[in-house]
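Format notes (please read before filing issues)

Several people have asked whether sequences and C-alpha cells are stored in separate files. They are not. Every record keeps both together, in the order shown below: the sequence lines, then the C-alpha cell lines. Line labels are part of the format and must not be stripped during preprocessing.
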Amino acid sequence: MLKILIPVDGSSHAMLAVHHALRLVGAGLKARFVVANVQEAANLYELVVAHDPVVLQQVSEAAGRDLVRPAVELLSAAGLQVEQAVASGDPANMLVEILETHACDAVVMSTRGSGLRAAVLGSVSQEVVQLSTVPVTLVRVPEDAQPD
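Then the structure lines:
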C-alpha cells in the first residue's frame, strides 16, 4: 500500500490535490495518506516582540492543525488511513523532510497555493519536484480559478 504525502495550506487550490487522491483511490489505488502543513518560520519582528518563543511555536502548530483539518476530515470520511504532519520553516525543505520522516512513497500536490511566497520566491511545488526523492504528481489549478 502506497503512502502518499499531500501538502495543504488551507487554500481551495490545495484541496484539488486531495480530490485527485480520492479519485485515484476510487480507481483502485491502495493508499494511505500524510496530510501536511508547513508554517513559515517566525520573522525577526515576531521573535523580538514575542515574550515567549514557545507561544509562537504553539500558535504556529495550532494554525497548521487548523489548515490540515478539512483535508484530514475528507480523507477520513472516505474510510482512508490518514496521518497529520505540521512543521514550520522553509516549506519545500520541510515537506521533503516530512516525506522522508513518514516514509512516503509519493507526493500529490497542487501547482498553486496561497500566499505571497509562491508569487515572489517561486513555486513550492516546483521546489518539491527538484528536492524530492520520490515521484511528485502536480495537480494543475484551472486557469480560470480565482485566488483564495
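For reference, the curators noted about this record: The helical segments are 12-26, 44-49, 53-77, 91-101, 116-121, 124-131. The mean pLDDT is 85.
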